[in-house]
Design goal:
148 residues; alpha+beta; 6 strands; 39% strand; globular
């Protein structure tokens, strides 16, 4: 998809997983294969398949992929919740790597911990196909209200 063909999204509060996937074509989350499966103001889910191009040198899922997924799911949820009141940016991402993964499909689920006037805190849990937690993280997000 070219820059001119980027899909238009109405209000961030009304975005569907399909629209989010189309909007993400060609960006980093698309490169790692993240596909959004649920997008609401209270929960954002996404999944991807672990493949060799996502490995670190030891032959396991690179931790940077977890950080990317955690930041992405949390930011989308925060943006949907803030809606037309402004935009959001991640200002801190803490990610814990709990279990090595070499293959399979991973699922990330983001939920809010706190949503305030200027900041939000979101937690993201990543599980494998056996529903074991393989990584967890939290993202502090700054709300940037529209001026005027």
């Amino acid at each position: 998809m070219t820059q001119q063909e980027t899909p238009q999204i109405g209000s961030p509060a009304d975005i569907t997983p399909e629209q989010m996937n189309a909007f993400s074509e060609g960006v980093f989350t698309d490169v790692i294969g993240l596909r959004y499966t649920e997008v609401t103001a209270d929960r954002v889910c996404g999944e991807w398949i672990v493949k060799p191009h996502l490995y670190q040198p030891a032959g396991i899922q690179n931790g940077g992929v977890y950080c990317t997924v955690i930041e992405s799911l949390a930011s989308v949820g925060a943006g949907v919740w803030l809606g037309d009141r402004g935009t959001v940016v991640g200002v801190n991402n803490n990610t814990d790597f709990l279990r090595a993964v070499r293959d399979g499909t991973l699922l990330g689920v983001a939920t809010p911990v706190h949503r305030g006037r200027l900041q939000q805190l979101w937690q993201v849990i990543i599980t494998d196909e056996q529903q074991r937690v393989v990584a967890r993280g939290q993202v502090r997000i700054q709300n940037l209200p529209h001026r005027g």
